[in-house]
């Protein structure tokens, strides 16, 4: 392999902007988060003392934290599975129609560009208790909708808005994955008399499993972090803490509650969790490359 | 393909059209609501068709100060544009340079630099939000464009993508350029950048949308309308206390806020799909 070797100074010049920005805005804050997690600070930031693991203990012994974990798991799995199954269904259809496939793609990918907060507002309007269209329809069916009072309905609403926004991302990947499957495989199965359903479950679906796994990880990360905007505009974490996810709680405890130590401890716990997820993903991708 | 069934084709088209329609419906209803007056909205349920005060609504919203803010939506849109463009361009510039150094140079601590940069892939800004806020406050960058932009540039997604692409460049190309007497700058400018044109376009689309749609970070560090983005302003407009929510204003702002990124994605669709699928790590 050919490299530019004679200049010793130049690579550092090239790397400098990225290294500086990453150090100032990534490593420094990340380090402070870790450090803060081991200190207790008063609300004005005037005094602090070393607290060992007590911030972590405070977080982990609080039953509210576990209910937030549970909410996050229910929310993330619903968003991931909802957005993925709808996307897979539409992608299979778009892959099999030969005419117009790309037109459908155009009409299905644009929600990707809608901000999570904006998606939240659009869905909030549909379900507004006094003038929402869906609320009116539900009322006719005898269902009373008010997400400001009913925690389950609030959770359902943020799930719907998040699924709506995330579907297009999954659609793009599933369609690309489907188009990469050799048509000869499906044709020979058809000649052997396998029905379309059978062909899908025994050939297409297993061959899509790497894509599906990748998307499961990406969707979980989306549900963990990016949906903050949706939750904040639609429910602000409520009613009660019915729609408070892990990231939302960090924000609430740290910025609204000014409880820096426990907020930082939660950040560290979340870092470990996301680090683990990313690690699993990298491991998996490596294995797939060999295969 | 002969094994496909005609009847299934028709069903597929119908289902796809229904899917497209269902996904468009919420936006359509937001749009129709934005063209009615507030009293209209609260006397009927959400209208299905366009009303007659649309132009007036949008014109007033763009120019006059909105609920609780001392600027019109035009100013907010401008702030979003500055932020999104800044993030996209900034990220691309530093990533082009860093990936170039990592792939085409051999120098001490190269692997360490590689890991220092790529570890940032693991932790999005939401996790380290409080300390980042403090750092930015210490640097006097609250309520400024640089405060909006710089912390969101500190991630390696673009560097990672470009590195993957640079690795596919045949070594013979570098060799030939060197024999012809091209130095590293010349190689970057005349060979590498022209070759990565489509990748850079793809990156721009993805980063622009990422930047435009940011919520938590701009929410924290902007307190006045001079730097607030349009996406963040929506929450302000929804928080009315006991008064009725001015849904015609909120939906109109939502439509305006989704306009630019949706246009970008539709116009540059080809690059967007490529960029997204390439980003699969």
From TrEMBL, chain A:
Keyword Secreted: no
GO cellular component, one term: plasma membrane
Keywords: Cell inner membrane, Cell membrane, Membrane, Transmembrane, Transmembrane helix, Transport
Segments traversing the membrane: 12-31, 64-94, 106-126, 154-178, 199-225, 264-285
Chief location of this protein within or outside the cell: membrane
GO biological process: transmembrane transport
Entry annotated with the keyword Transmembrane helix: yes
Residue span(s) of domain ABC transmembrane type-1: 69-281
Subcellular location(s) of the protein: Cell inner membrane; Cell membrane
NCBIfam families linked to this entry: PRK10561.1
Family, similarity comment: Belongs to the binding-protein-dependent transport system permease family. UgpAE subfamily.
Assembly information from the UniProt record: The complex is composed of two ATP-binding proteins (UgpC), two transmembrane proteins (UgpA and UgpE) and a solute-binding protein (UgpB).
Name this polypeptide is given: sn-glycerol-3-phosphate transport system permease protein UgpA
UniProtKB/TrEMBL annotation, chain B:
Any single biological process term in GO: transmembrane transport
Pfam families: BPD_transp_1
Cell compartment(s), UniProt: Cell inner membrane; Cell membrane
Entry annotated with the keyword Cell wall biogenesis/degradation: no
Cellular component, GO annotation: plasma membrane
Domain ABC transmembrane type-1 intervals: 77-268
Topology within the bilayer: Multi-pass membrane protein
Main location: membrane
Transmembrane segments: 12-31, 81-105, 112-133, 145-162, 191-212, 250-273
Keywords: Cell inner membrane, Cell membrane, Membrane, Transmembrane, Transmembrane helix, Transport
CDD domains noted in UniProt: TM_PBP2 (cd06261)
UniProt family annotation: Belongs to the binding-protein-dependent transport system permease family.
Functional summary from the UniProt entry: Part of the ABC transporter complex UgpBAEC involved in sn-glycerol-3-phosphate (G3P) import. Probably responsible for the translocation of the substrate across the membrane.
Subunit structure: The complex is composed of two ATP-binding proteins (UgpC), two transmembrane proteins (UgpA and UgpE) and a solute-binding protein (UgpB).
NCBIfam families per UniProt: PRK10973.1
Name of the protein: sn-glycerol-3-phosphate transport system permease protein UgpE
Organism: Chromohalobacter marismortui
């Amino acid at each position: 392999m050919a490299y530019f070797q004679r200049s010793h100074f130049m690579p550092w010049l090239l790397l400098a902007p990225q290294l500086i920005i990453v150090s100032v805005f990534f490593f420094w804050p990340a380090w402070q988060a870790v450090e803060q997690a081991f200190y207790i600070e008063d609300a004005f930031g005037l005094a602090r003392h070393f607290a060992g693991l007590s911030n972590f203990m405070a977080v982990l012994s609080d039953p509210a934290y576990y209910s937030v974990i549970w909410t996050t798991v229910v929310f993330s799995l619903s968003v991931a599975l909802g957005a993925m199954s709808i996307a897979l269904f539409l992608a299979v259809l778009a892959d099999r129609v030969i005419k117009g496939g790309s037109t459908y793609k155009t009409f299905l990918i644009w929600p990707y560009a809608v901000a999570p907060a904006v998606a939240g507002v659009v869905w909030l309007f549909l379900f507004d208790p006094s003038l929402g269209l869906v609320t009116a329809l539900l009322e006719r069916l005898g269902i009373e909708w008010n997400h400001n009072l009913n925690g389950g309905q609030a959770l359902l609403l943020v799930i719907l808005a998040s699924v709506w926004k995330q579907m297009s991302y999954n659609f793009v990947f599933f369609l690309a994955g489907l188009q990469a499957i050799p048509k000869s495989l499906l044709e020979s199965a058809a000649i052997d008399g396998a029905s379309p359903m059978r062909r899908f479950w025994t050939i297409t679906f297993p061959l899509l499993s790497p894509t599906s796994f990748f998307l499961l990880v990406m969707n979980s990360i989306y549900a963990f972090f990016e949906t903050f905007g949706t939750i904040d505009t639609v429910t602000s974490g409520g009613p009660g803490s019915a729609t408070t996810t892990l990231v939302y709680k960090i924000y609430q405890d740290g910025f609204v509650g000014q409880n820096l130590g426990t907020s930082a401890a939660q950040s560290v716990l979340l870092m470990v969790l996301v680090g683990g997820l990313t690690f699993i993903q990298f491991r998996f991708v490596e294995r797939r490359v060999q295969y | 393909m002969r094994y496909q069934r005609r009847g299934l084709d028709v069903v597929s088209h119908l289902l796809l059209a229904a899917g497209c329609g269902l996904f468009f419906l919420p936006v359509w209803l937001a749009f129709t609501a934005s063209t009615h007056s507030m009293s209209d909205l609260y006397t009927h349920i959400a209208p299905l068709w366009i009303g007659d005060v649309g132009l007036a609504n949008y014109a007033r919203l763009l120019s006059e100060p909105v609920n609780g803010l001392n600027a019109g939506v035009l100013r907010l849109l401008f702030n979003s544009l500055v932020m999104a463009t800044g993030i996209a361009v900034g990220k691309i510039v530093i990533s082009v340079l860093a990936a170039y150094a990592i792939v085409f140079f051999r120098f001490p601590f190269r692997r360490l630099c590689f890991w220092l940069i790529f570890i940032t892939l693991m932790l999005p800004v939401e996790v380290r939000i409080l300390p980042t806020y403090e750092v930015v406050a210490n640097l006097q960058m609250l309520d400024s464009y640089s405060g909006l932009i710089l912390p969101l540039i500190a991630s390696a997604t673009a560097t990672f993508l470009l590195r993957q692409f640079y690795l596919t460049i045949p070594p013979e190309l570098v060799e030939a350029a060197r024999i012809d007497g091209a130095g590293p700058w010349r190689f970057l400018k005349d060979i590498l950048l022209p070759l990565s044109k489509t990748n850079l376009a793809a990156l721009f689309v993805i980063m622009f949308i990422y930047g435009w749609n940011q919520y938590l970070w701009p929410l924290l560090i902007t307190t006045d309308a001079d730097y607030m983005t349009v996406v963040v302003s929506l929450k302000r407009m929804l928080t009315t206390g006991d008064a009725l929510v001015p849904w015609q204003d909120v939906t109109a702002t939502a439509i305006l806020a989704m306009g630019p990124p949706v246009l970008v994605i539709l116009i540059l669709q080809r690059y967007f799909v490529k960029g997204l699928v390439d980003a699969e790590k």
